[in-house]
Amino acid sequence: MRSTKLILLGLAVTLAGRACADDLLTVYQQALQAAPSLKSADVKVDIGAAQTGQALGQMLPQVTGTANWSENRLNVRNSDLSYSGTRYYLSLNQTLIDFAKFWTWRRARVAESQYELERTDVSNLLMFSVVERYFGVLEAEDQLRFIQTEKLAIQQQLQQVQKRFAKQLVKITDVYEVEAQLDKIEADQIEAESLVSSAKQNLRELTNQEPDSLLTLRENIEYKELEGKLDDWIAVATNDNPALAAQQKAIEAADNDLVAQKSRHLPVVDLQLNYYDTNTGYQSTLLSNQTQTQVAAINVNVPIFSGGTTMHQVREAESRLALNRHAEEEKLRTVVKETSDAFLTSNANVRRIKASIKALESAQKSHDAMQSAYKYGVATIGDVLVAQQTEFRARRDLLQSKYAYIKNRFRFLQAIGAISEENLQEVNTWLEKPVQASSVPNLEK
């Protein structure tokens, strides 16, 4: 069929010379190496581990040592005495009861878990963004390719109409109508080229590399609806979504911080062990003998008044806990919405793909029939153009449905916290190298 030849010609013109193409996994690896969000998440995990270590260290023994050497001169009743002084001091302090330190350590441990979950969420979001932007480029390039192919078809129709007009077989209005359609498609091509550039820049933002050529989507792919009930998937999402889990950890950490601030009102008990070795006493006076002293003590510190600082720290901690609870409610609603929307839309895309295939078959038959009718003078050139536009629109709708299915499927996997590199590998098998063409077929045959 002539319309099929036009589509093949458009593919040949667009894909000629594209020998090397990047697949989805290659682009994902580029994004892994270049994504600052992922690197920042890794650093944040390291910070959390360091904070946990700091909080634990505050509860472990604190040992300090001091050494002092001095030259002294003592004058008593015009009698001078010079001597060398030495002092050695070793101290060990061990916290016995300090609830504030304990709950600060608990808060740090929970915060570390929160940062690890946030890192997982960033990684999941990166995978989804790679898929979304990769197929965003393919979709934009397909739109441009269809417009270029349609433009080529209209140019050939214009040549045919002009030849028929020269033989006085058609009216000049037919020529004008085709020319007007050609002008419109040229304007559409400018917009499509801009969309391709924008889509490539979106992908470049992830990989920090200019995308050159990408593998394209195969034809023989089976698009299946997502199984299960929506309510069950929402339950999975509320349990496994890493962003929501991280927010729940943030609430737990804020709650521990509140308890830590309140604990600052409580007494603190610690054990102190000191060892002194010196030959100098008060005001560096010389002792008759080198003296060693060992001291063991239990210190009890009772906070009485700190100018209201502790009270305000408690109020701040209460406010931060309230903020995190509000954030959890907002995140929960977002997760439920994303899961529901992605699940329903993905399944709707499957049905839309099947309907688009049937619509394309009907549009092809209508276009071919309209071209035959035009040759015999039964239809006008306007009827042919409308039929042609309908066929190209059906092709665009079919591809858009396929791309939308893939994007929504990954959006669903991200929402329920189940997205993984295995999913990328599966979709990567749906891609193929663009077909090369060394020559342009002659459509006049």
UniProtKB/TrEMBL annotation:
Q: Which residues form the signal peptide?
A: 1-21
Keywords of the record, alphabetical order, are: Cell outer membrane, Membrane, Signal, Transmembrane, Transmembrane beta strand, Transport
Query: SUPFAM superfamilies from the entry?
Result: Outer membrane efflux proteins (OEP)
Q: Which InterPro entries match?
A: OMP_efflux (IPR003423), T1SS_OMP_TolC (IPR010130), TolC-like (IPR051906)
Q: Which GO terms describe its molecular function?
A: efflux transmembrane transporter activity; porin activity
Q: Which residues form a coiled coil?
A: none
Pfam families from the entry?
Answer: OEP (PF02321)
Localization recorded for this chain is: Cell outer membrane
- Key word Protease present in the record? no
Q: Which family does it belong to?
A: Belongs to the outer membrane factor (OMF) (TC 1.B.17) family.
Which PANTHER family does the protein's record reference? OUTER MEMBRANE PROTEIN TOLC (PTHR30026)
Protein name (database record): Type I secretion protein TolC
**What is the species listed in this Swiss-Prot or TrEMBL entry?**
Methylomonas koyamae
